[in-house]
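ok trying again, last paste got cut off:
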Amino acid sequence: MEKNKSIDIHCHIMPGVDDGSPDIETSLAMLKMAVNDGIEQIILTPHYKPMHHNVRPQKNELYRQKLQQIAQEKGIKVQLFSGNEIYYSGETQEQLVNREICTLAGSDYVLVEFHPTDIYSNIHNAMYQIISAGFTPILAHVERYSDIVSHPQYVDELIALGCYIQVNASSVMGKYGFGTRLFTRKLLKSRKVHFVATDAHDTGRRAPLLSECREYVERKIDSVYADDIFYNNPLAVIKGEII
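nice, full thing came through this time. structure:
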């Protein structure tokens, strides 16, 4: 049976730029896995961190074009878009305004991460700053922030503020322990998740796979919600539309 189509908004498939794919061969293998799993569009989100050698937007786009061309030549039918996973710092707001960091697929949506031990007030304040600058933040892998996991009501506060919530498919499927699985599944059942992504880094433990998680959501919640968080919402990001 053909898998339902999905779109991945968070992955590290771009070769040789961060702790994800080390080379073009790995990237192509990851893209093949993704396509075979039903993923038809992918936003490439290499890390953008303070004090690191980061890919600038112009280079990011050139690398995306090159990977897209090679994938096409190899018969891998996938559409790639530029982005970043932004590790928030005091410079992030200004860098976004000056277009020194890639938004997701050229939209006003930005994928933002924090240190796992960052306190909630710092995360909340950072998201407020991003929104104030005219961008729409998507909080990457919410299940990694211990203060939020300990206080699930914080997710409601972030959504009310104007944030969107992303979880990793592997977390939902229990690859990071029972507690993480329980937290992400509760969020899904209360429909507080807007995106499920792969956060893929390799072809092994952190592979670009969504279908198992999508099937879980379809089975345990409903197919309409699954369509939204695996396809419709990501498509809205790519099109720059309001979710």
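cool. Strands lie at 6-8, 39-44, 47-48, 79-82, 85-87, 109-113, 136-139, 164-168, 195-197. Residues 57-73 form the longest helix (17 residues).
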